[in-house]
Design brief:
A: 288 residues, alpha/beta, Rossmann fold, Alpha-Beta Plaits, 9-stranded mixed β-sheet, elongated, B: 273 residues, 2 domains, binds iron/sulfur cluster
Chain lengths: 288, 273
């Protein structure tokens, strides 16, 4: 059976991708899925080759045949997203592809056309195949692109006989994150010890509960505020959630990323520690 | 003047700039449009008034429904799923397009309100502050963002703290703004993610300036990127532990003289008068 592990955080910038990069070298039998489609970063460090680029048609968008259009304004009236102006010009960035304009047009001047919302990439890394994607900036339906990254990752895993998929998600709790977390076997929630880190952690925990996914919490840069780390630990305790790892703040981790190096492969002492090794045993995709 | 504050990467420091700029300026209102992770309110305590934002979802009258599937075939978001006995509506998938009743020949579809989140309003030293929160389990906060932006305001300026990334919620945030402050965290990820926002801003033709945040002295990635792409650098904010500590506790930085200078530079660069 293929086992999927997702790394998420309600708040952005807590160190999701850094943790993913640190874990990757320790997971055997791996396919990497970068589901952060509007800020995909793993590939920057794992300097991999792109083997295949697949355009993703996630949405249908309307096009108006000016020869037929009588400017009656019905489409503009019915579009609930304000994507059609009074002089019947469609703002494709606002369009959500609902096709309402298409069905209300009395002279059939509007046709719906499959539209590319982003590209998916099949890549090769030293640790196994990787799938990532890049949303065309400003496009709709990013949740569908995430779902497609996961689908192709599973296919790649089957084809290459791999049993583990590590998924790096995006911040927030909306459609992208729901597409990322639904149906995974385990999720790691990365937070930081601050008022906002704590606030957003509570929201992502709530989402994980709603979709019945098992979670572990990681507090990154925990020594920046021992006080908030304790608050987070207490909260998780009450929720029956394990704080499985506390990573100290260290500039060296940031620098290893800038040097295109997985932090856990540098000589950084934290990744030699017992805490780190113990954490690895708690992650279901690591074979130890 | 409507000013949006955005970033490619989460955690770049958007919120810090937004709440401090808001506190420092006069005649301004603040909208927190990061509805999935709204944090501005943690810095700006006060009494709340809360409104619910609804979308309209279909209810299907089973006595009229002939199970023809027309609505299910039509829904571009797969929010209506046909089963043998009835049409199932998935509330959270519905995008509020109000299209399904147009294709139903039996008149079986009407709509009801379904809450997707809230807008909290606070008065901070006489200045309005609005904060939108998407309910857990809902897909999109776009309607919450547009509703906040449509509320009337008598202030001269509006600051909108946007979501990270370049998805449709950022487009919603940027609709109708005059200027964008792009907060870019120094480092490899920060500049790569900012690059996607630059692409979007150029396409939307909105003028913008960059705040290079959490800059380390010997790191030149961010600075180089800004120079190579001829971007307008508003200010470079060095990584500063005092700032980090205060911000992590939900405290404002407007009391720090050095930070006031940073804000002054931003205000001048943006041209806020
Ligand atoms: S497809 Fe829907 S959202 Fe797009 S323009 Fe037509 S009515 Fe508006
Ligand atoms: S209103 Fe639109 S999105 Fe909602 S169920 Fe009907 S067709 Fe689908």
């Amino acid at each position: 059976m293929i086992h999927e592990l997702a790394i998420l955080s309600g708040k952005g910038g807590t160190g999701k991708t850094t943790l993913a990069l640190s874990l990757i070298p320790f997971i055997e039998d791996l396919v990497i899925a970068d589901c952060d489609v509007d800020a995909p970063d793993i590939h920057l460090v794992l300097a991999n080759q792109t083997i295949n680029t697949i355009p993703f048609y996630g949405i249908q968008k309307p096009f108006i045949n000016d020869n037929l259009c009588t400017k009656c304004g019905l489409c503009a009236m019915h579009c609930n997203y304000g994507a059609i102006s009074d002089d019947i010009i469609i703002d494709l960035k606002k369009c959500e592809g609902c096709t309402v304009c298409n069905i209300v047009c009395p002279v059939h001047a509007i046709s719906m056309v499959d539209t590319v919302i982003g590209d998916l990439y099949e890549k090769e890394t030293p640790y196994g195949p990787m799938i990532d994607a890049r949303l065309i900036p400003g496009e709709e339906a990013s949740g569908k692109l995430v779902a497609e990254v996961r689908r192709i990752s599973r296919e790649a895993a089957k084809k290459a006989n791999k049993n583990h998929i590590l998924i790096d998600g995006s911040p927030g709790v909306g459609c992208n994150v729901m597409s990322t977390i639904t149906g995974v076997n385990q999720a790691i929630l990365v937070t930081e010890p601050s008022e906002s880190g704590f606030h957003d952690l509570k929201r992502i925990i709530q989402l994980a509960k709603m979709v019945s996914v098992d979670v572990l919490v990681v507090v990154n840069k925990y020594n920046n505020s021992i006080q908030y780390t304790q608050i987070i630990e207490e909260y998780c305790n009450n929720e029956g959630i394990e704080v499985a790892l506390k990573i100290p703040y260290d500039k060296a981790i940031f620098h290893s990323i800038n040097n295109l190096e997985s932090p856990s492969l540098s000589t950084h002492p934290f990744f030699q520690s017992d805490e780190w090794k113990q954490f690895l045993t708690k992650i279901q995709v690591v074979n130890i | 003047m409507n000013i949006a504050i955005v970033s490619g990467k989460g955690g770049s420091g958007k919120t810090t700039i937004a709440v401090n700029l808001f506190s420092y300026l006069k005649d301004v209102r603040l909208i927190d449009a990061d509805t999935e992770a709204p944090n501005d309110h943690l810095y700006l305590p006060g009494e709340d008034a809360t409104d619910t934002v609804n979308k309209e979802i279909p209810i299907i009258d089973q006595t009229l429904c002939t199970k023809c599937h027309a609505c299910a075939d039509f829904c571009a978001f797969n929010a209506i799923v046909p089963t043998k006995t009835k049409m199932l509506v998935f509330d959270d998938l519905c995008h509020d397009c109000r299209g399904c009743h147009l294709v139903c020949q039996e008149g079986a579809i009407s709509y009801k309100n379904h809450p997707i989140g809230t807008i909290m309003t606070r008065n901070i030293d006489g200045k309005p502050f609005l904060s939108g929160t998407l309910s857990i389990g809902e897909q999109s906060g776009n309607k919450i963002i547009s509703t906040m932006k449509e509320t009337k305001s008598t202030t001269k300026h509006t600051i909108i703290d946007g979501p990270p990334g370049v998805s449709c919620k950022t487009v919603e945030t940027l609709d109708g703004v005059d200027y964008v402050i792009l907060v870019m965290e120094d480092g490899l990820f920060g500049l790569h993610d900012a690059d996607m926002v630059v692409e979007l801003l150029n396409e939307l033709k909105i003028p913008f300036g960059v705040v290079l945040n959490k800059a380390y002295d010997h790191v030149h990635v961010g600075q180089n990127y800004i120079q190579e792409n001829l971007l307008n650098l508003l200010v470079r904010i060095p990584y500063d532990e005092t700032y980090q500590n205060l911000s992590s506790k939900g405290k404002l930085l407007t009391g720090e003289i050095s930070y006031q200078r940073i804000l002054d530079t931003i205000i001048k660069g943006v041209g806020i008068i």
